[in-house]
Amino acid sequence: MPEEQSKLKLLQDAILAGNIPQMVLNIISYALDVRSSDIHIEPEDNTVRIRYRVDGVLRQIVEYPHNIHPAVVSRVKIMSNLKIDEQRIPQDGRSTVTTKDNREMDLRISTLPTVRGEKIVMRIQDKSRKIPDLPELGLQGSALKFFEDALKLPNGIILTTGPTGSGKTTTMYSAMARLNKVDVNIMTIEDPVEIQMNGLNQSQVHPDIDYTFANGLRTALRQDPDIIMVGEIRDRETINIAIEASLTGHLVLSTIHTNSAVETLTRILNMGVPPFLLTASLELVIAQRLVRRLCENCKKPVQPDPEILELVKNAMDNLGSTDEIDQEKLKNLQFYGPEGCEECDGIGYKGRLGLYEIMRMNNELRKLILTGASAMEIEKAAIQNGMVTLEQIGIIKALKADTSLDEVYRVAKKMEMGPGKKSTKKKMENPEADSVEDVTESMKKEEPATEKPAKPAVSPPPKVKVEKVEQINNPAKPAPAPAPAPAPVAQTVQTEQAAQAEQAAQPAQQEQKTRQVQTAPSNAAPQVQSEGQRPLPSEN
Ligand SMILES: [Zn+2]
Q1: Residues of 325-354 as b/e, b for ≥16 C-beta within 10 angstroms?
Q2: pLDDT (average), residues 385-401
Q3: Where are the beta strands (DSSP E) in 162-256?
Q4: Residue-level pLDDT at 461
Q5: 232 CB contacts (<8 Å, ≥6 apart)?
Q6: Given this model, what pLDDT does residue 35 score?
Q7: What is the band of 250 on the pLDDT scale with cuts at 50, 70, 90?
Q8: Which of 124-128, 202-206, 356-360, 369-373 has the lowest mean pLDDT?
Q9: Is 34 helix (H, G, I), strand (E, B) or coil?
Q10: How far is the CA of 118 from the centre of ligand 1 (A)?
Q11: Of 266, 346, 353, 528, whose CA is between 20 and 30 Å from 282?
């Protein structure tokens, strides 16, 4: 087989040949090639489509006929030790794939019965990926300094916040890599342990047997820790123990689900934490997002809409720290956009970078929190103390031609738009204040032109680099059992509503693992691109 023949072509050939094991293998190996984080296999009316999430955005890859779908599902279930005869309930499993260069990929597989058949989502995790250092994540200037200073503290709480898939876990791991020294005991309580690091004591929660974040954190405190990382703070019990740990001399790192640094304060107060305990323990809040990087090869200068330019000017008017941008660029306001070329599969973007809004606690902010100041007042003070908001740092990255304004505002839909906006005008102590409403509100207000990725009906990102494909063509060790004959698909009544309901289904985000099975590596030995190209997974 000539090397230049792409894996996509191989996948299409396997579909045409009806070779199911080969097809499943090619689906996975092509996904690894294009740095995909999730594979979606979705039955539709007449066909089944395969989409990949690449750099945080779904891309349609290929379609195959409905009649072979049951065999594909069975094949995937065998790979991950799921029950092939159970098609009525969702199932979760996992499997590992070892690549040719001996990297272990963890596949987390979720099936969901839909009205048109079972939908499969496979999340790909590169267990051996290199952990990027903080500057490689996109941290720079005062934000980087605030973060580095906080990591040197003997005790206190450092929180990372942002929506699902904003890179929080990677940031945590990068911080852990900095802290990982022989003279400190680092305990982690995670769900799941995504990357294993030598030197850390990593523990995975099991909520089904009551080993929760809160219990894990309590236990960790009895293990003579210096630094504790808790996967997520989502309830009062966990935050209370985290505060206790901080007050008794430990550095605690965790993530929390909010939309901005200041909103995190509201969230914690709403959990019932008295303001004095919050100010006594919290040291740093990092709000983050991932934006796609413009393709170096084809980015071009663009003239943004006057409306967007207005937003840009408003945001940059109250820039608190000027260490990240030179004034010349700020005057010219020259932005760049995607074009699309062979390098980037015609998308115009390749890879991602982080936007970070870092709020460092100081006495001024503590005083404001204790006196019940509004979120807006606190944010204003934080900006005066050097915090650069997500929107501002996004614009700065766009001025540096790292990303586009469209991309910043696509992600900005989920961010608070700086002081002066209605969404931040609530009182800190108001227990009813619910962050979700505010977000939806700001989403309605700012409806930027969303960049739609190219969506070819069947296949073709133009050209894919493939190094070697022999292993794919020649599965050395066949899987334990052959794919069984396709079971009849239960396709009875199909209403429009039900069809829409399916669209909303996103099982990948539900990672409750009721059943985890570790299977031996299947015959796959897919080829993967260089390590550095997938530094930011769409995690947790
Ligand atoms: Zn390009």
Answers
A1: beeeebeebebbbbbbbeebbbbbbbbbbb
A2: 94
A3: 186-190, 201-204, 227-230, 251-256
A4: 38
A5: 191, 213, 238, 254, 255, 256, 257, 540
A6: 87
A7: very high
A8: 124-128
A9: coil
A10: 35
A11: 353
Tell me the C-alpha distance between 90 and 82, whole Å. 10
Give the closest residue to 97 by CA, choosing from 125, 61, 129, 130: 125
> Ligand 1 centroid vs 509 CA: distance in angstroms?
30
How far apart are the C-alpha atoms of 380 and 370, rounded to whole Å?
16
Ligand 1 mean position, distance from CA 465 (Å):
14
Tell me the average pLDDT of the chain.
80
| Confidence band of 335 (pLDDT split at 50, 70, 90) | very high
> What percentage of the chain carries pLDDT values higher than 90?
62
CA of 165 to the centre of ligand 1 (A): 24
Pair of tokens at residue 105: 């990929």
Q: 394 CA to middle of ligand 1, Å?
A: 21
Kindly give the residue spans of alpha helices, DSSP state H, lying in 273-351.
Answer: 275-281, 306-317, 327-332
Ligand 1 centre distance from Cα of residue 23 (Å): 29
* Å from CA of 301 to ligand 1 middle: 14
Which whole-number Å values give the CA distances from 38 to 294, 414, 452, 502, 537, in the listed order? Answer: 21, 22, 18, 18, 10
Structure tokens at 23: 């097809």
User: What is the reported pLDDT for 413?
Assistant: 62
Strand intervals (E) in 130-174: 156-161
Q: If you average pLDDT over residues 86-103, what whole number do you get?
A: 86
Contact assessment for residue 89 and residue 113, using Cβ atoms and an 8 Å cutoff: yes
Report how far residue 439's alpha carbon sits from residue 240's, in angstroms, rounded to the nearest whole number.
26
> Which residues neighbour ligand 1 (ion) by CB within 5 Å?
295, 297-298, 341, 343-344
| CB atoms closer than 10 angstroms to residue 518 | 11
Q: β-strands 251-256, 282-294: how paired?
A: unpaired
Determine the distance separating the centroid of ligand 1 and the alpha carbon of 352, expressed in angstroms: 14
Share of the chain above pLDDT 70, in %: 75
**Which residue is it, tokens 């680099």?**
465
Q: 349 alpha carbon to ligand 1 midpoint, in Å?
A: 7
Centre of ligand 1 from the C-alpha of residue 456, in Å: 17
Ligand 1: distance of its center to the CA of 244 in Å? 50
SS3 4: coil
Mean pLDDT for the stretch of residues 168-182 = 95
Neighbours of 154 (CB within 10 A): 9
Residue 29, pLDDT score: 87
> What is the whole-number distance in angstroms between the Cα of residue 470 and the centre of ligand 1?
29
Give 388 Cα–ligand 1 centroid separation in angstroms.
30
- Dist. CA 345 → ligand 1 center (Å): 7
